[in-house]
From TrEMBL:
Keywords: ATP-binding, Nucleotide-binding. It comes from Anaeramoeba flamelloides. The keyword Ion transport does not apply. Gene3D superfamilies: P-loop containing nucleotide triphosphate hydrolases. This is Protein kti12.
Length: 276
């Protein structure tokens, strides 16, 4: 059954949107909204650090997959700000040959901060986590085929539920393709590829450090294919220290199912920024 994926900054009106969709569609079919509340989790704990984020994404995805295999319209209501993760959810819909669409709540960072301030204390994002999530958010982009069809939603404008129904429910079904299966690479290939990506990132960081003076901050830009991450490192580190960071990262993510090279790259660069 259809998958409606919602994406947007934290506190951008996603659940409000999901509830409006549910109210409309449940007159016609079974509808399941999957979000932090449904999973019984705390939004600040889920995004506290890399490990908890990855665990949260794992349970979000498996709950979506379980619901999709039933006769249910699934509304996957989350920040879904990592493009590699949106790709994985798109693939779930594609493997089942169902309809799919991405609704993007376009609320700006300034407004989400305001809305967050008016929330009840227990549902508020702490300001550090809110800023971190805003900074990391990879905006949906129709150049990525898995971000299509994309419907931008401004929570302050009238919602065109009929347009969403036309695309998400009556629209074209995705076709399960061999490519989806090919993508499920053998673990050893994935580990080999991740090792290369990590080494590449370290080489790029080390290159900048070689020419910089101790005590100054470094601006580093790391590339992986077309993905670019710019960040700052506060102090110079030795090569053994960089290798230790890589080892710690590998330990942190071991047993977590990261198959997308893009996602691995983004997570590793974030980890380097925080731990060097
Ligand atoms: N159009 C709107 N105008 C003003 N406030 C709004 C609007 N939409 C949502 N809000 C407020 O923003 C807060 C967050 O709304 P909502 O739970 O829908 O966002 P969310 O993106 O699902 O949040 P989260 O990232 O925590 O899941 C709520 O307090 C809600 O009242």
């Amino acid at each position: 059954m259809p998958l409606i994926l919602i994406s947007g900054l934290p506190c951008s009106g996603k659940t409000t949107l999901a509830n409006k969709l549910k109210a409309k569609f449940e007159k016609q079919m079974r509808v399941e909204v999957i979000n932090i509340e449904k999973l019984g989790l705390d939004r600040n704990k889920c995004h506290f650090d890399l490990k908890s984020e990855i665990q949260f994404r794992g349970s979000f995805k498996s709950t979506v997959n379980r619901a999709l295999s039933g006769n249910t319209l699934v509304i996957a209501d989350g920040i879904n700000g990592i493009k590699g993760f949106r790709y994985e959810l798109y693939c779930s819909a594609r493997e089942l040959g169902t309809t799919f669409c991405l609704l993007y709540c376009t609320t700006s960072p300034e407004i989400v901060r305001e809305w967050n301030n008016t929330r009840e204390e227990e549902t508020k994002y702490s300001s550090g986590i809110l800023d971190d999530l805003i900074q990391k958010f990879e905006q949906p982009n129709t150049e990525n085929y898995w971000d299509r069809p994309l419907i931008p939603i401004d929570p302050n404008s009238e919602l065109d539920l009929d347009q969403i129904e036309k695309i998400a429910v009556q629209g074209k079904k995705l076709r399960a393709r061999q490519a989806t299966k090919i993508h499920i690479k053998r673990k050893s290939n994935i580990l080999f590829e991740q090792g290369k990506i990590a080494q590449d990132v370290l080489d790029q960081i080390f290159e900048v450090m070689k020419t910089a003076q101790s005590g100054e901050t470094f601006n580093v830009i790391c590339f992986y294919t077309q993905t670019k991450k710019k960040f700052m490192i506060k102090k110079k580190a030795s090569l053994p220290k960089l290798l230790r960071v890589k080892k710690q990262f590998t330990k942190t993510i071991e047993n977590l199912n990261i198959s997308q090279p893009d996602e691995y790259f983004t997570l590793f660069v974030d980890y380097c920024q925080k731990n060097i």
